[in-house]
Each structure stands twice: as C-alpha cells, then as structure tokens.
Design a protein that fits this description.
The complex is a heterodimer. By secondary structure, chain A is mainly α. Chain A has one domain: MetI-like (MetI-like fold, Orthogonal Bundle). Chain A contains ten helices and two strands, in the order ααββαααααααα. Chain A has helices at 6-39, 45-49, 62-93, 98-112, 115-129, 136-160, 164-172, 177-205, 234-243, 250-281, and strands spanning 52-53, 58-59. Chain A has a two-stranded antiparallel ribbon. In chain A, β1 and β2 form a beta hairpin. Chain B is mainly alpha-helical. In chain B, 77% of the residues lie in helices and 1% in strands. Chain B contains 14 helices and two strands. Chain B has helices at 2-17, 19-42, 44-49, 65-96, 99-114, 117-126, 128-135, 144-168, 172-180, 185-196, 198-214, 217-222, 240-247, 256-288; strands at 53-54, 61-62. A two-stranded antiparallel ribbon of chain B has the order 1-2. In chain B, β1 and β2 form a beta hairpin. In chain B, α9 (172-180) runs antiparallel to α10 (185-196). The termini of chain B are far apart. The chains are: A mainly alpha, B mainly alpha. Chains A and B meet through α1, α3, α4, α5 and α6 of A and α1, α2, α4, α5 and α6 of B.
Chain lengths: 284, 289
C-alpha cells in the first residue's frame, strides 16, 4: 500500500468524513422534501375537516387528526406529573444508594424496550386485564409509560441546571425542603421541563406500534366523544392506506403523511427554538 | 398542617420515583406469565430452535428461528451501514466544522430521529423498494436489504448524538498534547480522540443496535414479511417485531398463537435489556475518564 503524506491523508480523510455527514443528512432532507412536494397539494380545508369517504379513498382525515390529538393529550396529562415527580425524587431527594442505581437502570431499560412490546404490554394490562377495551385511554396509558423515561431524563437535567445556591438560600431561611422545591427550584426549571414535554408530544404523535392493538381502529364512523372510544389515529391511518388498501390514490396518502409530518416537525421545531431561547435568557 | 402536607407530597414523589422500577417489573411479569404458559405447552427449545413459523396451520408450528434470522439479517445490514456513517458524521460535526454549522448539522440529524417510522416506511416503499428491485434485478424489492438501508438511517441519529457527546468530552489536554508533538489534526483525531472516546462510541453503537432491533413499522412495510429462513439478504424476511405487529390482530385471545407472540415479546425484552445494560456500563465508563 502506498503511504500518503500526513497532510494528504488528512485532506483525504476530511473529504471522507464530509461525505459521511452528507449521507447521514441527505435522507431526512429527501423525505421532508418529498412529502412536502407531493403532499402540500392534497391539503384543502375539506381534507382536514371532513370524514373519509369511498373506503378511505376520498373525503378527509378529520377523525384521524382528532383521534391522535386526544390520545396524545391524554398521554401527556398522565405522564408529565409522574415524570416530573420522579425527576424531583432523583434530583432532590435520592441518596447515592442501591435503590437509586436500580431506578436509573430501570429508566435506561424502559427507554430501550421496543415500541411494539409496549403495545403487547398495553394490550395485556389495559385492554384485557383492566378491561378498558381498545380505547383512547388504553392507548394513552401505554404511550405514557413509554414516554416516561424521556420526560424523567429531560426534567431531571432541567432541575439539575438550577444552581445549588438557590436551594441553599431558601433552606437557610428556614423554608422546608418541599417548599423550597415547590417555590424556588421548580419555577426555575419550568422552561426546560416544558421543552421536554413538547418533544415528547411530538414523538408520541408519530408512534404507531404501541396503539396498534390498544387504541387504533381501521374506521370509526363518528368523531371521538369519550376516552373509552376506539379512534382512528394519523400514523395508523397512514399505515393502513399505504399498505392495506389497493388502488389508493397517491395524493391522499401523501396528504396524510404531510399532515402527520408537519404536526411532528412543527412541535419539534418549537421545542428546539424554545430551548435556545430560554438558554439565552437564563440569568445564571 | 404544613408538616403533614410536606410528608404526603414527599411520599407521592417517592412513589413516582420508583414508578420506573414498577413498570419494568410489570412489563416483564406480564410477558413472562403469558410466555411461560406457552413454553409449558410448546417447549422452549422447539420455540427458539424451531425452523418453521406456521402459527395458523394445523398442526401449528411456532419455531421463531426464521424470525430471529430475519431480525439478525436486517440488524447486521443496518449496522454495517449506520456504524461507519454515524461515527464519521459525529467526528465531522464535533471536530472539523465551525461552531455555527455544527449546530445546524446537529439539528438536522436530530430531525431525522423525529420523523415517525410510518412516514419513513412509506417513503421507503415508494422510492427504495423499486430502486433495489431494478438495480439488483430481483423479483421483489421488499427484502432484508431494503429494510437494512432504511433502518440504518433511523439508527444514525442515535449513534451520532451519543458518540458526539463522547467525542466532545475528551479532555482538551489530550489533543493539545498530540498537536504539540507535531501530529497533524487528523492524526490526533484518529489516534487520540477516537481512542479516548471509544467507550462512549461503543455505547452509541449498542444503543443504535437496540433501536434497529426494536423498530417495527418501517421494517414491517419494507422487508416483505415472509416468515422463512432467508438464504441471502436479497430475500424477503419477517422480523420478530413485525411478527408481533402483523399477527396480533388475527389471533384468538388466550390461544397458542396469542401466547407465542407474548413469548416473542419476552425474547425482545430480554435482548434489549441486555443491550441497554451493556451500553449503560460503557456510558458510565466514558464518564469516568
């Protein structure tokens, strides 16, 4: 093998790394571009605000949009308080002992469980064992367990970035530990916690596998009106119309993908901007 | 009054604190309960080593070897693509580009992680599948190979983000030392930075593998879903995750097929548990250096 001079080998390697980075980023641009180019034209008021017709081939996707929103809102209502409390425990109360290590291991493990296994579990416990049936609430609870590790991790780093001196000042005035957390630590950590919550909402809006057997229905002829209803959901709808229905008009599929992608990307961008904004405004 | 309130609140916080443990135990015991009654009837060895997955024929056969091989093929393929691209991208972002561009590149990589897997699957079905079919002249483009490519792109963000963290936490003295001895910047990156960041990079790769094994929707849409043992990566396969997602709807509650899917879930749970545990060990190691 020819030995390159160090300078030349550096140039060559840099070019290679640059090429790898392009390969890593090209697909995301390609996917977003493709969906926007083909999907934007399918969007109309009617598409967003009416029921599907002709076996999904016409009409709109309103029930799927509302279904996803209701599942996601239910899920975040459950998971946010539990996750934040867990983060408070880990960051403010937990000592460095065996229990804390096990909790941390459990969180890591929970984050790695495949989404379809959450679906199985949710079906087993919420749909069958607790007899909630295939419903918004069963799907939301399944998603909320799945999202718990993300909420805990982001909330914990938000709490952790509040300077220790804040707590000392409050404690030295004779304020109790919980009162200090409630009135001093939490308010300072709220922006970080909310950013994490928005990111979580974005992520679970696009999840299909966990709601496959716990909440989603192929077709529901009415809009969701109770949390014990089966619902249509955007990601599941996209899966169904792109794989199960023959002769599906392409523009309807693209339109559905467009709505889902925009929902997820808008929330992700809001979260990213919020993170930058609050980091700049932080006074400590 | 205030004391009792504090006491109650702190108890609630403690319960939320241990909620993660409760959920992990719950998930495991649910899968284990259904799986165990399946193993009693069918046998663990027949399940793990069986070469035929015919859950609905008579007599039914529940050998998950085809599904395991399917998952392994897709995972190895995806890693072969994602690991080099991911590590090189992480090096590029953290060591070479200026700070302004770095943040843009990082956000773009994170954006990929935000795209729902059904959307990835749909785009893959439309573009990649026919491309693979035509280039390799195959009867169908729905193959393990197409699945590997798509999953590789989904694993790249995980690998990039975590290795980038590891690379950036390499102490600057190491680099300064190498540069002062006359090494070029690339020599420093390759021989010093890469080595010092290695535990973190290994953790990143493990977590990427975990992501690929657990991925369901995109894989189900792209790999063709044929539950037989493939001879090459250019054949359709069915992964463990896809089997659960595709077959759960058609099972009889409480039947053998139903329980066998929980047994697959148990296998998946144990695999990802192991992967995450190892990754966590390496992450702990990288924080200590």
């Amino acid at each position: 093998m020819i030995k390159l001079s160090p300078k030349l080998s550096q140039k060559f390697s840099y070019a290679l790394l640059c090429f790898a980075a392009i390969l890593a980023i090209a697909p995301v641009l390609l996917i977003v571009f493709m969906i926007i180019k083909n999907g934007a034209s399918a969007i109309s008021w009617e598409f967003l605000s009416s029921m599907p017709k002709d076996g999904m081939r016409g009409g709109g996707i309103l029930p799927a949009i509302l279904g996803t929103l209701s599942i996601v809102l239910c899920a975040i209502t459950v998971t946010l308080p539990v996750g934040v409390c867990a983060a408070i425990y880990l960051n403010e109360y937990a000592k460095d002992n065996m229990l804390t290590r096990i909790i941390k291991l459990a969180i890591v493990n929970l984050a790695g469980v495949p989404s379809v296994v959450y679906g199985l579990f949710g079906f087993g416990i919420f749909v069958m064992f607790l007899k909630l049936g295939v419903s918004i609430i069963a799907g939301a609870l399944t998603l909320s367990i799945m999202e718990l590790p993300v909420i805990i991790t982001t909330a914990r780093s938000a709490l952790n970035s509040v300077p220790y001196s804040f707590r000392e000042a409050s404690l030295s005035l004779g304020v109790s530990r919980w009162q200090t957390i409630r009135h001093v630590v939490l308010p300072s950590a709220i922006p970080g916690i909310l950013t994490g919550a928005i990111l979580s909402i974005a992520r679970i809006s696009g999840e299909t596998a966990p709601i496959l057997f716990t909440a989603a229905a192929f077709y529901v002829p009415h809009l969701p009106y109770s949390i014990f209803d089966q619902v249509m959901a955007l990601p599941y709808h996209l899966y169904i119309i792109s794989t199960q229905i023959p002769n599906m008009p392409k523009n309807v599929i693209y339109g559905t993908a467009f709505v889902l992608l925009m929902m997820v990307l808008t929330m992700s961008c809001v979260a990213i901007f919020a993170r930058v904004y609050f980091r700049k405004r932080r006074k400590w | 009054m205030r004391k009792t309130l504090d006491f109650i609140v702190e108890k609630i916080i403690f319960i939320c604190g241990i909620a993660s443990i409760i959920f992990v135990v719950l998930i495991f015991s649910f899968l284990f309960k259904e799986g165990l009654s399946f193993f009693k009837d069918f046998g663990v060895l027949n399940f793990i080593g069986g070469r035929f997955w015919y859950p609905s024929s008579d007599p039914a056969s529940f050998g998950i070897l085809p599904l395991i091989v399917g998952s392994v093929f897709v995972t190895i393929g995806a890693c072969a693509i994602a690991v080099p691209i991911g590590i090189m991208t992480a090096l590029f972002i953290s060591e070479i580009v200026p700070k302004g561009i770095r943040d843009i590149l990082k956000s773009l990589v994170e954006l990929m992680a935000a795209i729902p897997s059904v959307v990835v699957g749909f785009v893959g079905m439309i573009t990649l599948v026919s491309l693979v079919k035509n280039i390799f002249n195959l009867p169908t483009g729905l193959t393990a190979f197409s699945g590997s490519i798509m999953l590789a792109f989904m694993a790249v963000p995980t690998i990039v983000t975590i290795s980038e963290d590891a690379i950036r936490s390499v102490p600057w003295q190491y680099k300064q030392g190498a540069l002062a001895l006359g090494a070029t910047k690339w020599q420093t990156i390759r021989r010093i930075v890469l080595k010092a960041a290695m535990p973190g990079i290994i953790a990143a790769v493990m977590l990427g593998i975990g992501r690929v094994i657990g991925e369901t929707m995109a894989v189900m849409m792209i790999t063709g879903n044929a539950a037989h043992i493939p001879h090459s990566i250019f054949e359709p396969v069915r992964t463990m995750t896809a089997a659960i997602a595709a077959e759960m709807g058609e099972t009889v509650r409480g039947g053998m097929h139903y329980k066998s899917l929980f047994a697959i879930g148990l296998v998946l749970f144990l695999i990802t548990f192991l992967i995450n545990f190892i990754a966590d060990l390496f992450l702990g190691k990288s924080k200590n250096t």
